[in-house]
Write a structure and sequence with these properties.
Keywords: DNA-binding. This is Transcriptional regulator. It comes from Peribacillus loiseleuriae. GO terms for molecular function: DNA binding; DNA-binding transcription factor activity; protein dimerization activity. The chain has 2 domains: 64 residues, 434 Repressor (Amino-terminal Domain) (Orthogonal Bundle), CATH 1.10.260; 37 residues. The chain starts with a helix and ends with a helix. With 107 residues, it is an all-alpha fold. Helix 2 crosses helix 4. The protein is elongated. 67% of the residues lie in helices and 0% in strands.
């Protein structure tokens, strides 16, 4: 449900309900009703305001992305930042392999 996704993303961003409502310019009571799944049909304008503050696409609030399941927002942001900075997949894999090797050396 949309409310569950909003709550999860808000918590992943370490935001209180009050903080999200204020930054998005929406009523805290309405946000609370949404998160408790009492309100199940929010307007697209409401969702756009929430998505903007959470720095996610609106469609992320509407449906789960099976590719992203299990990844929290912070991990997604790290991967996106690496991609934007020009880190290639091979470089990322090399880092992971190096880190595994380093951890084995410490054992």
């Amino acid at each position: 449900m949309i409310g569950d996704r909003v709550k999860k993303l808000r918590q992943e961003n370490r935001m209180s309900m009050t903080e999200l409502a204020e930054k998005a310019g929406v009523a805290k009571s309405y946000l609370s009703s949404l998160e408790r799944n009492l309100q199940t049909n929010p307007s697209i304008q409401f969702l756009e305001k929430i998505a903007l503050v959470l720095k996610i696409p609106v469609d992320s609030l509407l449906h789960d992305d099976p590719v992203k399941e299990g990844l929290d927002t912070e991990w997604l942001n790290i991967v996106q930042e690496a991609m934007k900075s020009g880190v290639s997949k091979d470089q990322f894999r090399e880092f992971i392999e190096f880190n595994k090797w380093k951890l084995k050396q410490e054992d």
